[in-house]
Amino acid sequence: MAKTNVKLSEAAKKKAIKRHNWALQWCWNYERMQAAGYAYAMVPVINELYDDNEERCRNLERHMMFYNTHPGSSALIFGADMALEEDYQGEVGDSLKVALMGPLAGIGDTIQAVIITPIFSIITASLAQEQNYLALVTALIPSFFLFFIRWPLANYAYKKGTAIMADVSGTGSFEALQVGASILGLVVIGGFIPSILSGLQIKDIVRTFTNAQTGEVVESPLQIQKGLDAMLPYLIPLALTYLCYTLIKVKKVSPMKTILIVFVIAFVCGALGIM
After folding, report:
1. What does the pLDDT look like over 197-211, one tens digit per residue?
2. Sign of the dihedral defined by the CA atoms of residues 7, 71, 102, 62, in that order
3. Residue 220 in 3-state DSSP?
């Protein structure tokens, strides 16, 4: 049976959050996705709130329903769900999971795939080109950040309880955050394009002729790149980026075919000595 007026101990909360953050993806499967890992994480909470083993099993069985969201933002759901379990409102927690796992999956995917990972990947690639060993550090920053941010998120949601619903769906602030994050990520990545492709330049065409008076062979380079930079700096990287955008978004060419097209262009230009 359920214990009365029981508040979760700090040990139980820490153990549950630790299990969630480490083991959510354990036993991932196509039928129930992250449900087994989520139920495993909830065991310390259920054990502390209930004495009867049958009641423990019955409540843990609720957490074996289909569950799938971004592992990082899942900490918000888990923290709020712990608070509801503590108040013996497990059914409300089940509804909370169903309501939030979709929106939070979109937010988590956007922050990871559009902002953090691309930005640090670009920084890492730039450092690696310069043979800077800091590239080994910057490559790991996204993984460490997205993992360790789960602890404060879970504790925040535990204190908020069902009020977390208002943050996600009531005010639309999370939707605005998702859109803003996408825009910010694209702007930052766009700003890195010139520096990444700065080496993409047209080589000078060297013309040779013989001076009629001295008989000396004189070289006269035709600086095409300098002329392009005078019109618009980084025109070639911009044109290449626009080509890729047109192929993927307008012509609906697959990313793999687009990469192959760029590879062929680069190979031909390199073989002809154009770039």
Report:
1. 666 667 766 666 666
2. negative
3. strand
